[in-house]
Amino acid sequence: MAQGVHYREGMWAVSPYNFDDGVNAGMHLPPKVQLLDLTLREGRQVDGVSLSLEDVVEFARRIDAVGVHMIEMHHEDPEEIRQVKKLGLKLKVQALVPSNFLLDMKLCKHHIDRFVDVGADIVCIAMAVSDYNFRLAESMSKKRITREDVLDQACEAVNYAKQQGVIANALVADFTRMKLEWLKALTGRLARAGADILRLDEICAPCRPAVCRYLARHVKQAIGNIPLAIHTHNDFDLGLAGQLAALEGGAEILEGSINGLGERAGVPNIAVLASVLEMLYGYNMGLRLDAFQELSEFVADVWRQPIPAHMAGTGRTAFSQCSEVHYVLPDSGEWMFNAWSPKVIGNRDYVPLCHYSGPMAIKRKARELGLGELGTEAANEVLAQVRRELRHRHTPLTNRLFAELVSQAAKR
To answer: Is-above-0.90 flag for pTM?
Structure first.
């Protein structure tokens, strides 16, 4: 097959319809996309996680080497930002000013100053004025305050951040549960106040992906050429779908974290998001996609949060085949049961064994482990023992045990 956007020899073979004008009619895909990594902010809001300064700095160095454009760091310890900026990395560092800080303009400006002092490139000012979230604003402000008051203060904070020489990012939380006219009015107002980036946060995934696309399009029309960012969650396992839907509505800055770490069910896995953008949308963002696996494993070790075995892209079984027919492929049958190679993301093939595995899988497993070429009779004998062990153990067989079964079959 000739090389093309949908086909890269040895790397992927995706549907050509991904690039069909008829399929893409009505989409508003931007010419350029950037990625924001959330691992040092949202990815730390996870049960049992506590990082040292050395861990934070080392992660920043490693994700910069992958080529990710921006990272968001936690606002609780601005000194971490200072130490990361000392590395002289290419990526930009964003600091978040939570929505409760906005209720006290003196406090808000104080935090903006702190982030500017430690060298943050972007200051993201959050506001929460939906029907569900504004009750929190009312209770925390300890004074009578209206949505319009909060919007006024957000515009003042955006203007103040710009005066301090940083990129001002305005975040609108819970945007999918706002009336459309109010959403368009407040985002347009923030744009006129000087926001350099407008960021939409669905806060708890209360919508279908189509809603993200629809609202992103309306907001883009309201803010013009200002870049639009989107923040989504996996409460319904739709975080990645929400990112892509917003992209199709015109969003230029997409977000995720390594291994999808984040609040509740997490956020999109940025390694898969980056791969999808290149393979299914044709964006070349200059990333080292094949470096994501090593970074995924680094985070799993340092965060002490194991990678789920079945996680797309970076999971142990992400590129595995159990069914016997998947091992009896004709020549040039590489893409019969795969759309992309583990080489894309730096992962590897894996031969799992289950009750329905066949002798071809046994032969492949033995070859993979360097145990030599098994004949069909020996493979069937090993297969019988594998099924017996699985029936008793109810857990994957270790490579050591598999090697012992192969050795016993050879002796017999």
So the answer is: yes
